[in-house]
Amino acid sequence: MEFLKINHLKVYYPIRGGFFRRVNDYVRAVDDISFELRSGETYGLVGESGCGKTTTGRTVIGLIKATAGEILLEGKDIAKLSSREFSRYRRDIQMIFQDPYSSLNPKKRVLDIIAEPLRNFERLSPQEEKRKVQYFVEKVGLHADSIYKYPHEFSGGQRQRIGIARALTLNPKLIIADEPVSALDVSVQAQVLNFMKEIQKEFQLTYLFISHDLGIIRHMCDRIGIMYRGQFVEEGTSEEIFNNPQHIYTKRLISAIPNADPQKRKEQLALRKQVEEEYTNSFHQYFNHDGKAYRLKRISETHSVAIL
After folding, report:
1. What CATH number did the domain enclosing 47 receive?
2. I need a surface site. Which of 15, 107, 161, 249 has the fewest CB within 10 A?
3. How far apart (Å, rounded) are the C-alpha atoms in residues 18 and 119?
4. How far is Cα 102 from Cα 151, in angstroms, rounded to an integer?
5. Helices marked H in the chain — which ranges?
């Protein structure tokens, strides 16, 4: 059985207008998507800004209410639970937020920031709480005395490590990482990503990794879902997506990845030109007259694509 299974998830926001503020239409932030995560794997959600990937992650963790669909965590549909019923599952799902500068309370010490989940779910003495916080602070590569400092005393990479430590305190089964390194320098990104891989093995974590950076996704993820305007246009293993992309949107994303090798720049430009020509000539093979993607079709056991 799958660890996490998303069935026909929809998140719609009403558009109101007129004197009586009637609902005229909806913003379809997430429009009927389905995917699954196996225990211990990293699943990547990829797409441009506004495609619905962050909304999907926030809906899974319960920060946004689903309009329709199922979110099955170990067989239990958590999408239909009340806030009180959902609270027992909160410790199993934690989130690493995009911006390490705004996700930490500047008025609190690191001790209080990391201990907050413990205070919500466990009853520990001050000494036990301190020992546990120091354990996780050291696990993420910071000094034990860091717990007495405030967020402004750390660099961006160190702040993100504090966010990761906070997510680990309750020994979760699933971590949703929403653009966890996009606000960091490139050199620091590599350190944080490699560190996340290490703790995944140590704590047997499952990741839902959200990013617009395909280079990072390729490094981190076992399987990938490509999102466009709230829908999936392609899904497959990392190898299938990068070596055998089928949807034109996936091809455009891959062709846009910068190549640092000067010898291959002409080759990259030729690929981009070829992809743009295919997009112009074959648009209706991939999108309907409203510009929406078609339904996914399975082309192999692990690879699906939205194509006419």
Report:
1. 3.40.50.300
2. 107
3. 47
4. 10
5. 53-60, 83-90, 110-121, 126-139, 156-168, 186-203, 214-220, 238-243, 248-255, 265-281, 283-286
List the structure tokens of 179.
């653009």
Torsions phi, psi of 157, nearest 5?
-65, -40
Residue 239's pLDDT is 94
CA pair distance 18, 28, nearest whole angstrom: 21
- What tokens does 59 get? 């809906």
pLDDT of residue 1: 58
Whether the CB-CB separation of 164 and 184 falls below 8 Å is answered with no
Does one domain contain both 70 and 138?
A: yes
Paired residues of 177 in beta bridges: 96, 209
- 219 & 268 share domain: no
Domain count, the chain: 2
Residue 51 burial (CB count, 10 A)? 22
* pTM of the model as a whole: 0.90
pLDDT digits (tens, 9 = 90+) for 71-84: 999 889 998 888 88
Residue-wise DSSP of 243-264: HS--SHHHHHHHHTS----GGG
